[in-house]
Amino acid sequence: MRPQTKQILSWCFFDFANSSYSAVIAAVIFPVFYVSKIVGNDSGQGDLWWGRAISASMAIVALTSPLLGGIADYSGRRKRLLFIYTTLCVLAVACFSILKPGMIMEGFLLIVLANIGMEGGLVFYNSFLTGIAPATMQGRVSAWGFGVGYAGSILSLLFALPLVKGGNFQATWLLVSGFFLLFSLPAFLYLPPDRKTGPGILDSSVKGIAYSWQAVREIWNRRPVRRFLLGFLIYEDGVNTVIVFSSIFAATTLRFNAMELIGLYIIVQITALVGAFAMARPIDTLGPKKVLSMSLLLWTGVAVAAYFIPDKLSYFVLASVAGTGLGTVQAAGRAFYARFIPEGRESEYFGLYSLVGKSSAVAGPLLFGYLSATFHSQRPAILSISIFFALGLLIIRGVDGGGPNDVGSQAPE
Questions:
Q1: C-alpha angle 205/200/350, rounded to 5°?
Q2: Domains of the chain
Q3: What is the structure's pLDDT at 362?
Protein backbone atom coordinates (compact mmCIF):
# COMPACT_ATOMS: atom_id res chain seq x y z
CA MET A 1 0.00 0.00 0.00
CA ARG A 2 1.37 3.42 -0.97
CA PRO A 3 2.32 5.75 1.91
CA GLN A 4 -0.23 8.38 0.81
CA THR A 5 -3.02 5.76 0.76
CA LYS A 6 -2.08 4.64 4.28
CA GLN A 7 -2.13 8.24 5.45
CA ILE A 8 -5.57 8.91 3.96
CA LEU A 9 -7.01 5.70 5.43
CA SER A 10 -5.53 6.36 8.87
CA TRP A 11 -6.81 9.96 8.74
CA CYS A 12 -10.31 8.67 7.94
CA PHE A 13 -10.04 6.07 10.72
CA PHE A 14 -9.43 8.83 13.26
CA ASP A 15 -12.83 10.22 12.30
CA PHE A 16 -14.19 6.68 12.70
CA ALA A 17 -12.69 6.63 16.22
CA ASN A 18 -13.81 10.03 17.46
CA SER A 19 -17.32 9.56 16.08
CA SER A 20 -17.99 7.23 19.01
CA TYR A 21 -17.68 10.33 21.19
CA SER A 22 -19.75 12.45 18.80
CA ALA A 23 -22.57 9.90 18.71
CA VAL A 24 -22.77 8.47 22.22
CA ILE A 25 -21.41 11.34 24.33
CA ALA A 26 -22.13 14.58 22.46
CA ALA A 27 -25.34 13.70 20.65
CA VAL A 28 -27.48 10.79 21.82
CA ILE A 29 -27.02 9.00 25.14
CA PHE A 30 -24.91 11.08 27.51
CA PRO A 31 -26.72 14.43 26.95
CA VAL A 32 -30.04 12.86 27.97
CA PHE A 33 -28.35 11.00 30.86
CA TYR A 34 -26.76 14.19 32.20
CA VAL A 35 -29.80 16.40 31.64
CA SER A 36 -32.39 13.99 33.07
CA LYS A 37 -30.49 11.76 35.51
CA ILE A 38 -27.69 13.96 36.85
CA VAL A 39 -29.40 17.39 36.83
CA GLY A 40 -33.14 16.93 36.19
CA ASN A 41 -34.94 18.78 33.41
CA ASP A 42 -38.49 19.41 34.65
CA SER A 43 -37.97 23.20 34.54
CA GLY A 44 -35.30 23.32 31.82
CA GLN A 45 -32.37 23.35 34.29
CA GLY A 46 -30.82 20.32 32.61
CA ASP A 47 -30.83 22.12 29.26
CA LEU A 48 -29.27 25.13 30.94
CA TRP A 49 -26.41 23.18 32.54
CA TRP A 50 -25.72 21.20 29.37
CA GLY A 51 -25.62 24.41 27.36
CA ARG A 52 -23.23 25.94 29.89
CA ALA A 53 -20.87 22.94 29.73
CA ILE A 54 -20.74 22.88 25.93
CA SER A 55 -20.36 26.66 25.70
CA ALA A 56 -17.57 26.78 28.31
CA SER A 57 -15.56 24.03 26.63
CA MET A 58 -16.02 25.55 23.18
CA ALA A 59 -14.97 28.97 24.45
CA ILE A 60 -11.74 27.50 25.84
CA VAL A 61 -11.02 25.66 22.58
CA ALA A 62 -11.82 28.79 20.56
CA LEU A 63 -9.46 30.98 22.60
CA THR A 64 -6.56 28.52 22.55
CA SER A 65 -6.83 27.10 19.02
CA PRO A 66 -5.00 29.86 17.09
CA LEU A 67 -2.10 29.83 19.54
CA LEU A 68 -1.85 26.04 19.51
CA GLY A 69 -2.11 26.00 15.73
CA GLY A 70 0.81 28.42 15.50
CA ILE A 71 2.82 26.31 17.95
CA ALA A 72 2.08 23.15 15.94
CA ASP A 73 3.26 24.70 12.66
CA TYR A 74 6.30 26.43 14.11
CA SER A 75 7.52 23.54 16.30
CA GLY A 76 6.42 20.73 13.97
CA ARG A 77 4.55 18.92 16.77
CA ARG A 78 1.10 18.44 15.24
CA LYS A 79 0.89 14.71 15.91
CA ARG A 80 2.11 15.04 19.49
CA LEU A 81 -0.51 17.66 20.27
CA LEU A 82 -3.21 15.53 18.60
CA PHE A 83 -2.16 12.65 20.89
CA ILE A 84 -2.30 14.82 24.03
CA TYR A 85 -5.80 16.10 23.27
CA THR A 86 -7.05 12.63 22.33
CA THR A 87 -5.72 11.20 25.60
CA LEU A 88 -7.47 13.96 27.57
CA CYS A 89 -10.80 13.11 25.94
CA VAL A 90 -10.39 9.35 26.40
CA LEU A 91 -9.56 9.68 30.11
CA ALA A 92 -12.34 12.20 30.83
CA VAL A 93 -14.96 9.98 29.18
CA ALA A 94 -13.75 6.99 31.22
CA CYS A 95 -14.27 9.11 34.36
CA PHE A 96 -17.94 9.61 33.43
CA SER A 97 -18.44 6.17 34.98
CA ILE A 98 -18.16 7.69 38.51
CA LEU A 99 -21.09 10.12 38.01
CA LYS A 100 -24.24 9.71 40.09
CA PRO A 101 -27.49 11.74 40.32
CA GLY A 102 -26.88 15.16 41.85
CA MET A 103 -23.20 15.34 40.82
CA ILE A 104 -23.90 18.38 38.66
CA MET A 105 -20.56 20.18 39.02
CA GLU A 106 -18.49 17.02 38.71
CA GLY A 107 -20.35 16.17 35.51
CA PHE A 108 -19.97 19.74 34.28
CA LEU A 109 -16.18 19.67 34.77
CA LEU A 110 -15.76 16.26 33.12
CA ILE A 111 -17.88 17.34 30.13
CA VAL A 112 -15.74 20.45 29.72
CA LEU A 113 -12.50 18.43 29.84
CA ALA A 114 -13.77 15.75 27.46
CA ASN A 115 -15.07 18.28 24.95
CA ILE A 116 -11.83 20.27 25.08
CA GLY A 117 -9.94 17.07 24.27
CA MET A 118 -12.26 16.15 21.42
CA GLU A 119 -12.75 19.56 19.81
CA GLY A 120 -9.21 20.83 20.47
CA GLY A 121 -7.73 17.76 18.79
CA LEU A 122 -9.70 18.46 15.62
CA VAL A 123 -7.51 21.54 15.02
CA PHE A 124 -4.52 19.26 14.40
CA TYR A 125 -6.53 16.49 12.75
CA ASN A 126 -7.98 18.88 10.15
CA SER A 127 -4.55 20.38 9.46
CA PHE A 128 -3.30 17.06 8.03
CA LEU A 129 -5.81 17.25 5.12
CA THR A 130 -3.76 19.47 2.82
CA GLY A 131 -0.63 17.38 3.41
CA ILE A 132 -2.08 13.95 2.64
CA ALA A 133 -4.31 14.79 -0.35
CA PRO A 134 -3.67 16.85 -3.51
CA ALA A 135 -5.81 19.95 -4.03
CA THR A 136 -7.93 18.21 -6.67
CA MET A 137 -8.96 15.49 -4.17
CA GLN A 138 -9.30 17.39 -0.90
CA GLY A 139 -13.07 17.73 -1.23
CA ARG A 140 -13.69 14.02 -1.63
CA VAL A 141 -11.12 13.04 1.03
CA SER A 142 -12.80 15.48 3.42
CA ALA A 143 -16.16 13.84 2.67
CA TRP A 144 -14.67 10.34 3.00
CA GLY A 145 -13.54 11.27 6.50
CA PHE A 146 -17.04 12.31 7.50
CA GLY A 147 -18.55 9.26 5.77
CA VAL A 148 -16.27 6.82 7.60
CA GLY A 149 -17.03 8.77 10.76
CA TYR A 150 -20.75 8.13 10.36
CA ALA A 151 -19.97 4.41 10.06
CA GLY A 152 -18.11 4.71 13.38
CA SER A 153 -21.14 6.41 14.92
CA ILE A 154 -23.42 3.58 13.80
CA LEU A 155 -21.08 0.85 15.05
CA SER A 156 -20.47 2.49 18.43
CA LEU A 157 -24.22 2.96 18.97
CA LEU A 158 -24.87 -0.69 18.09
CA PHE A 159 -22.22 -1.71 20.64
CA ALA A 160 -23.79 0.61 23.23
CA LEU A 161 -27.36 -0.56 22.57
CA PRO A 162 -27.41 -3.67 24.84
CA LEU A 163 -25.63 -1.75 27.63
CA VAL A 164 -28.12 1.12 27.55
CA LYS A 165 -31.03 -1.32 27.32
CA GLY A 166 -29.75 -2.95 30.50
CA GLY A 167 -29.26 0.41 32.23
CA ASN A 168 -25.49 -0.12 32.44
CA PHE A 169 -24.45 3.44 31.63
CA GLN A 170 -21.08 3.21 33.41
CA ALA A 171 -19.97 0.45 31.02
CA THR A 172 -21.27 2.55 28.09
CA TRP A 173 -18.88 5.39 28.87
CA LEU A 174 -15.95 2.93 29.25
CA LEU A 175 -16.91 1.39 25.89
CA VAL A 176 -16.72 4.77 24.15
CA SER A 177 -13.38 5.55 25.79
CA GLY A 178 -11.89 2.24 24.60
CA PHE A 179 -13.40 2.57 21.10
CA PHE A 180 -11.88 6.03 20.66
CA LEU A 181 -8.48 4.88 21.90
CA LEU A 182 -8.32 1.70 19.80
CA PHE A 183 -9.36 3.11 16.44
CA SER A 184 -7.27 6.28 16.76
CA LEU A 185 -4.05 4.23 16.83
CA PRO A 186 -3.63 4.03 13.00
CA ALA A 187 -3.50 7.83 12.84
CA PHE A 188 -0.60 7.94 15.28
CA LEU A 189 1.18 5.18 13.34
CA TYR A 190 0.76 6.38 9.75
CA LEU A 191 0.03 10.12 9.58
CA PRO A 192 3.06 12.24 8.58
CA PRO A 193 5.50 12.34 11.51
CA ASP A 194 6.43 15.39 13.53
CA ARG A 195 9.71 17.08 12.71
CA LYS A 196 12.55 15.46 14.65
CA THR A 197 14.12 18.80 15.50
CA GLY A 198 12.50 22.13 16.17
CA PRO A 199 12.17 24.92 18.70
CA GLY A 200 11.06 24.17 22.26
CA ILE A 201 7.52 24.72 23.48
CA LEU A 202 8.34 28.08 25.12
CA ASP A 203 9.99 29.47 21.99
CA SER A 204 7.19 27.97 19.89
CA SER A 205 4.59 29.66 22.10
CA VAL A 206 6.12 33.07 21.51
CA LYS A 207 6.43 32.43 17.79
CA GLY A 208 2.96 30.87 17.72
CA ILE A 209 1.44 34.10 19.01
CA ALA A 210 3.29 36.06 16.35
CA TYR A 211 2.25 33.58 13.64
CA SER A 212 -1.38 33.73 14.74
CA TRP A 213 -1.43 37.51 14.74
CA GLN A 214 0.14 37.53 11.28
CA ALA A 215 -2.56 35.16 10.04
CA VAL A 216 -5.31 37.34 11.50
CA ARG A 217 -3.92 40.36 9.65
CA GLU A 218 -3.64 38.38 6.42
CA ILE A 219 -7.23 37.16 6.66
CA TRP A 220 -8.54 40.62 7.51
CA ASN A 221 -6.94 41.90 4.31
CA ARG A 222 -8.33 39.03 2.19
CA ARG A 223 -12.02 39.72 1.67
CA PRO A 224 -13.10 36.24 0.41
CA VAL A 225 -11.56 34.50 3.44
CA ARG A 226 -12.98 37.06 5.84
CA ARG A 227 -16.44 36.72 4.35
CA PHE A 228 -16.26 32.92 4.34
CA LEU A 229 -15.32 32.82 8.02
CA LEU A 230 -18.20 35.17 8.88
CA GLY A 231 -20.66 32.87 7.10
CA PHE A 232 -19.02 29.84 8.72
CA LEU A 233 -19.33 31.47 12.15
CA ILE A 234 -23.08 31.83 11.69
CA TYR A 235 -24.09 28.59 9.98
CA GLU A 236 -21.81 26.45 12.16
CA ASP A 237 -23.65 27.85 15.16
CA GLY A 238 -26.73 26.14 13.79
CA VAL A 239 -24.87 22.89 13.07
CA ASN A 240 -23.35 22.69 16.56
CA THR A 241 -26.61 23.52 18.29
CA VAL A 242 -28.47 20.84 16.33
CA ILE A 243 -25.82 18.26 17.22
CA VAL A 244 -25.87 18.94 20.97
CA PHE A 245 -29.63 19.45 21.41
CA SER A 246 -31.39 17.26 18.81
CA SER A 247 -31.59 14.20 21.07
CA ILE A 248 -32.61 16.32 24.07
CA PHE A 249 -35.43 17.85 21.98
CA ALA A 250 -36.56 14.38 20.95
CA ALA A 251 -36.46 13.05 24.51
CA THR A 252 -38.06 16.05 26.22
CA THR A 253 -40.59 17.38 23.70
CA LEU A 254 -41.48 14.19 21.80
CA ARG A 255 -40.89 11.73 24.68
CA PHE A 256 -38.43 9.45 22.89
CA ASN A 257 -37.04 6.71 25.14
CA ALA A 258 -33.38 5.62 25.08
CA MET A 259 -33.94 2.83 22.55
CA GLU A 260 -35.88 5.11 20.22
CA LEU A 261 -33.12 7.75 20.45
CA ILE A 262 -30.49 5.24 19.45
CA GLY A 263 -32.62 4.02 16.55
CA LEU A 264 -33.24 7.60 15.45
CA TYR A 265 -29.56 8.47 15.52
CA ILE A 266 -28.57 5.30 13.63
CA ILE A 267 -31.02 6.23 10.86
CA VAL A 268 -29.57 9.76 10.75
CA GLN A 269 -26.04 8.39 10.57
CA ILE A 270 -26.94 6.00 7.75
CA THR A 271 -28.50 8.80 5.69
CA ALA A 272 -25.55 11.07 6.55
CA LEU A 273 -23.10 8.38 5.44
CA VAL A 274 -24.96 7.95 2.14
CA GLY A 275 -25.10 11.72 1.67
CA ALA A 276 -21.42 12.23 2.47
CA PHE A 277 -20.21 9.59 0.01
CA ALA A 278 -22.75 10.60 -2.65
CA MET A 279 -21.57 14.23 -2.51
CA ALA A 280 -17.84 13.47 -2.10
CA ARG A 281 -17.01 13.79 -5.79
CA PRO A 282 -19.46 16.67 -6.51
CA ILE A 283 -17.65 18.79 -3.90
CA ASP A 284 -14.68 18.74 -6.27
CA THR A 285 -16.55 18.66 -9.60
CA LEU A 286 -19.29 21.20 -8.79
CA GLY A 287 -17.19 23.13 -6.31
CA PRO A 288 -17.59 23.27 -2.51
CA LYS A 289 -19.48 26.57 -2.63
CA LYS A 290 -22.42 25.19 -4.61
CA VAL A 291 -22.63 22.00 -2.55
CA LEU A 292 -22.40 23.95 0.72
CA SER A 293 -25.13 26.34 -0.41
CA MET A 294 -27.51 23.51 -1.30
CA SER A 295 -26.92 21.88 2.08
CA LEU A 296 -27.56 25.10 4.01
CA LEU A 297 -30.82 25.62 2.12
CA LEU A 298 -31.88 22.10 3.10
CA TRP A 299 -31.02 22.70 6.77
CA THR A 300 -32.94 25.97 6.88
CA GLY A 301 -36.06 24.12 5.87
CA VAL A 302 -35.38 21.31 8.35
CA ALA A 303 -35.09 23.72 11.31
CA VAL A 304 -38.38 25.44 10.40
CA ALA A 305 -40.14 22.10 9.95
CA ALA A 306 -38.88 20.88 13.35
CA TYR A 307 -40.88 23.65 15.07
CA PHE A 308 -44.13 22.16 13.73
CA ILE A 309 -43.23 18.49 14.16
CA PRO A 310 -46.25 16.74 15.77
CA ASP A 311 -45.06 13.22 16.63
CA LYS A 312 -42.24 10.69 16.70
CA LEU A 313 -42.85 9.28 13.21
CA SER A 314 -42.66 12.74 11.64
CA TYR A 315 -39.43 13.41 13.51
CA PHE A 316 -37.94 10.16 12.20
CA VAL A 317 -38.75 11.25 8.64
CA LEU A 318 -37.43 14.77 9.15
CA ALA A 319 -34.23 13.51 10.77
CA SER A 320 -33.63 11.19 7.83
CA VAL A 321 -33.89 14.11 5.41
CA ALA A 322 -31.63 16.23 7.61
CA GLY A 323 -29.02 13.51 7.79
CA THR A 324 -28.33 13.61 4.05
CA GLY A 325 -27.02 17.16 4.41
CA LEU A 326 -25.19 16.87 7.74
CA GLY A 327 -21.82 15.58 6.59
CA THR A 328 -22.05 17.52 3.34
CA VAL A 329 -22.25 20.86 5.18
CA GLN A 330 -19.12 20.08 7.18
CA ALA A 331 -17.10 18.39 4.43
CA ALA A 332 -17.83 21.10 1.84
CA GLY A 333 -17.03 23.86 4.32
CA ARG A 334 -13.71 22.28 5.27
CA ALA A 335 -12.76 21.75 1.62
CA PHE A 336 -13.77 25.33 0.72
CA TYR A 337 -11.61 26.78 3.49
CA ALA A 338 -8.64 24.53 2.61
CA ARG A 339 -8.36 26.35 -0.73
CA PHE A 340 -7.42 29.56 1.06
CA ILE A 341 -4.47 28.10 3.02
CA PRO A 342 -0.83 28.82 2.09
CA GLU A 343 1.47 25.79 2.14
CA GLY A 344 3.17 25.18 5.49
CA ARG A 345 0.61 27.10 7.57
CA GLU A 346 -2.12 24.47 7.79
CA SER A 347 -2.33 24.14 11.60
CA GLU A 348 -2.26 27.90 12.03
CA TYR A 349 -5.07 28.51 9.55
CA PHE A 350 -7.11 25.62 10.87
CA GLY A 351 -6.51 26.99 14.36
CA LEU A 352 -8.30 30.16 13.25
CA TYR A 353 -10.94 28.02 11.54
CA SER A 354 -11.45 26.27 14.86
CA LEU A 355 -11.56 29.61 16.69
CA VAL A 356 -14.46 30.70 14.50
CA GLY A 357 -16.24 27.33 14.59
CA LYS A 358 -16.00 26.88 18.34
CA SER A 359 -16.92 30.51 18.99
CA SER A 360 -20.14 29.81 17.14
CA ALA A 361 -20.78 26.89 19.48
CA VAL A 362 -20.76 29.26 22.45
CA ALA A 363 -23.80 31.36 21.47
CA GLY A 364 -26.06 28.67 20.01
CA PRO A 365 -26.28 26.29 22.99
CA LEU A 366 -26.69 29.22 25.39
CA LEU A 367 -29.50 30.66 23.25
CA PHE A 368 -31.23 27.28 23.03
CA GLY A 369 -30.99 26.77 26.79
CA TYR A 370 -32.22 30.32 27.49
CA LEU A 371 -35.23 30.09 25.15
CA SER A 372 -36.15 26.65 26.48
CA ALA A 373 -36.02 27.83 30.10
CA THR A 374 -37.82 31.12 29.33
CA PHE A 375 -40.73 29.69 27.33
CA HIS A 376 -40.80 26.30 29.11
CA SER A 377 -40.82 24.83 25.61
CA GLN A 378 -38.09 23.73 23.24
CA ARG A 379 -40.03 24.60 20.08
CA PRO A 380 -39.10 28.32 20.00
CA ALA A 381 -35.49 27.27 20.64
CA ILE A 382 -35.41 24.83 17.70
CA LEU A 383 -37.04 27.41 15.40
CA SER A 384 -34.33 29.97 16.20
CA ILE A 385 -31.72 27.70 14.61
CA SER A 386 -33.18 28.31 11.13
CA ILE A 387 -31.96 31.92 11.32
CA PHE A 388 -28.35 30.77 11.58
CA PHE A 389 -28.61 28.57 8.48
CA ALA A 390 -30.43 31.16 6.37
CA LEU A 391 -28.09 34.03 7.25
CA GLY A 392 -25.02 31.83 6.79
CA LEU A 393 -26.28 30.85 3.33
CA LEU A 394 -26.71 34.49 2.28
CA ILE A 395 -23.16 35.32 3.32
CA ILE A 396 -21.56 32.23 1.74
CA ARG A 397 -23.28 33.01 -1.57
CA GLY A 398 -21.32 36.26 -1.66
CA VAL A 399 -17.89 34.64 -1.19
CA ASP A 400 -15.66 34.75 -4.27
CA GLY A 401 -14.26 31.39 -5.38
CA GLY A 402 -15.22 27.89 -4.39
CA GLY A 403 -16.05 26.80 -7.91
CA PRO A 404 -14.78 23.65 -9.65
CA ASN A 405 -12.10 25.58 -11.55
CA ASP A 406 -10.77 27.49 -8.55
CA VAL A 407 -8.57 24.67 -7.21
CA GLY A 408 -5.20 26.00 -6.11
CA SER A 409 -6.02 29.55 -7.09
CA GLN A 410 -7.28 30.91 -3.78
CA ALA A 411 -4.22 30.66 -1.54
CA PRO A 412 -1.94 33.68 -1.62
CA GLU A 413 1.27 33.46 -3.59
A1: 45
A2: 3-188+204-397 (1.20.1250.20)
A3: 66
